[in-house]
Design brief:
Strand content: 5-15%
Structural class: alpha+beta
Distance between the termini: 88 Å
């Protein structure tokens, strides 16, 4: 008795390209994010009178109650 050959199963699609895209998106968002600690005190910055950007990144923060913060200090 001859049995008919079963139909071949369709090939499963690979998930490797999807994993690659997920890792690329993860790297993109990690690099694009600003990874800096929050300011130690809440500040309300004044409006600038000039369109020129600040010359230095260092900033001395002064709270309304007189508390000072510089960097991590």
């Amino acid at each position: 008795m001859r049995l008919p050959m079963p139909a071949p199963r369709p090939a499963r699609e690979s998930v490797v390209p999807m994993i690659n895209v997920v890792f690329l998106l993860l790297i993109f968002f990690l690099i694009g994010a600003r990874l800096a600690p929050p300011d130690p005190i809440e500040i309300d910055p004044p409006e600038a009178a000039s369109d020129r950007p600040p010359e230095a990144e260092a900033a001395l923060l002064v709270a309304a109650d007189g508390m000072l913060a510089y960097g991590d200090e």
